[in-house]
Amino acid sequence: MFRNFKNVSRFIFGRGCFDQMDDILNEAPLPEAPRAFLVDDVFEGTDLEKRIPARPGDLLRFVNVDDEPKTGRVDAIRDEILEFVASRGGDLPGSVSGIGGGSVMDIAKAVSLMLTNPGSSADYQGWDLIQNPGVYHVGVPTLSGTGAEVSRTTVLTGPDKKLGINSDHTVFDQVALDPDLIGGAPKEQRFYTGMDCFIHCVESLEGSFLNSFSRAYGEKAMDLCRRVFAESDARHDDDLMMASYFGGMSIAYSQVGVCHALSYGLSYVLGLHHGIGNCVAFDCLEDYYPEGVDEFRLMMDRQGISLPRGLVQGMEEDRMEKMIDVALFLEPLWENALGPDWKKKMTRETVRRLYERM
To answer: Domain Fe-containing alcohol dehydrogenase-like C-terminal, which positions (predicted)?
Structure first.
């Protein structure tokens, strides 16, 4: 059986298109119901805040993402929105918009789902566990690279694991891709997030799940990443935004691999953000992705980036064991990277040795 994937229903692209958000949200199924805007708190008090089409009676909530998104945080925001809407005589918001990087967009996707599905978001960490469509949800990236704007997952850290809510219902109903919004990102953050896209492509293109659909998107996304980070000193924000979109599409019929599995362990135990965790892990994987790692290191040099080192030096044994547990739990990633007999190739001791290099 071939998987029948859902894609983003509608998208808009172009510099300044964010200013059409009011019209976009008026096309939601319940346009008169209160809107919920979840916005990265770095934009509080900025010009972008003034451009958000929040009406009297809408909820504008600034979200801090210094830490990776957690299931408890999602549940708390869900409860806050329900209380806010109830105070205005309603049941559900008309829309949920996530305006920020991958973490904010993942929170918005997860909150949308938890408004219409019972229990905790931790109950749905896995594949195709969501039963009910979420509230109409819109993604507006202000960083590019994660592919969160197009993916069918929302990556969350729960009580026991870091794992996405993977579902066709997770996919945004609408995305607004405005390259102007990513222009002010700091150099390091821009690089780490952009490398998430590059690493997506390496792992997809070298994985056993690859097909022509994934290859077409992955090859184009990789070419755009090279243009942005290796071939020019110009920012090329339009290209980076499209690389992120294509990179997210490339893993729809494929999957990521060794780097992302190890990065999940780093994030869960050490609290590293996903982008920098990927970079730290990928820099140690020349035995698995030799050409990709060489190219990654050239991009680091070109962009003047230095990675943190010695992150697991002196780590307590129980934390190391947990990190290994989290990484090895992600079986589809290992199978894509190493084939169906991956357990013979990637033992706990092998994972430990890789982590000890970080």
So the answer is: 192-283
Q: Is the overall model pTM greater than 0.85, yes or no?
A: yes
53 and 141 belong to one structural domain = yes
Widest CA span of the chain, in angstroms?
Answer: 59
pLDDT tens digits, 4-28: 889 999 999 999 999 999 999 999 9
Among the candidates 149, 181, 213, a domain finishes at 181
168-182 burial string, b = 16+ CB within 10 Å, else e? ebbbbbbbbbbbbbb
CATH number assigned to the domain comprising residue 282: 1.20.1090.10
Helices first, then strands: H and E counts in the chain: 14, 9
Give CA–CA dist 196/180, Å, rounded: 20
| Phi (first) and psi of residue 255, to 5 degrees | -170, 160
Tell me the chain's radius of gyration from C-alpha atoms: 20
Whether residue 128 sits in one domain with residue 28: yes
Tokens of 184: 């002010």
Helix, strand, coil in percent for the chain, rounding step 5: 50, 10, 40
Q: Which domain holds residue 110?
A: 10-181
Model pLDDT for residues 93-150, shown as the tens digit of each residue: 999 999 999 999 999 999 999 999 999 999 999 999 999 999 999 999 999 999 999 9
